[in-house]
Amino acid sequence: MEATIAAYDDGRDWLGALVTHLQGHRDLLVDLVSGNLSRVQFIPPQGTYLDFLDLRDYGIRGSVQSLPQSEAGVAGTDGRRCGKDFRGGFRVNHATPATVLTETVQRIGRVLEDREGREGREGREGREG
Fold first, then answer.
1. Integer Cα distance of 50 and 65 in angstroms
2. Whether the predicted pLDDT of 127 surpasses 90
3. Is a pLDDT exceeding 70 seen at residue 100?
4. Which member of 6, 10, 29, 88 lies 3.0 to 4.6 Å from 56 by CB, making a disulfide possible if both were Cys?
C-alpha cells in the first residue's frame, strides 16, 4: 500500500517523462512509416502505445502474421485478432527502444518491397508467357 501512495504522491515527474518519451516514439513511428512504408495507413493509438499499420494497400487482405514474423523476423499482433475491420493490418508496440522500432519498420518495409518486386515479376512473366 505504501508503494501505491508513494506513486500517487511522488510519481508525477516520472509519469510526465514517460508520456513525453512515448509521444516521441509515436512520432518516430509516424516518421518511419511515412519514410519506409509509404502505402501503409498508420492508425494512431487511442490512449495506449499500440499502433495499427494497415497493409491492405499492398494487396494484403487476410492474415499478415506470417509476413512480419516469418519473413521480417518481427513480432506484433495480426489485425484479425483485433476485429474484422482490422484484417490486413498489423499492430505494433512503440513502447520499445528507438533502435528496435526503427529496425522493425525497416524490416517490414524490405519484406513488402521484395514481395511487390516478386509479384511484379510474376505478373510480367505471366503476361509474356
1. 16
2. no
3. yes
4. 88
DSSP state of 87: T
The label of the residue with cell 518486386 reads 117
Cβ neighbours around 11 below 10 Å, total = 12
Task: Tell me what the mean pLDDT of segment 44-59 comes to.
Answer: 86
Q: Residue 109 half-sphere exposure, CB side, CA atoms within 13 Å?
A: 15
What are the domain boundaries of the chain?
2-128
Which pLDDT score is estimated for 25? Answer: 95
Q: Is-contact 76 68, C-beta < 8 A?
A: yes
Reading the block at residue 24, the C-alpha cell is: 516521441
40: amino acid identity, one letter? V
Contacts 24+ apart (CB under 8 A), 116-123: 116/58, 119/59
| Alpha carbon 65 to chain centroid, angstroms | 12
User: Taking the model in full, what pTM does it have?
Assistant: 0.78
CATH of domain 2-128: 3.90.1150.10
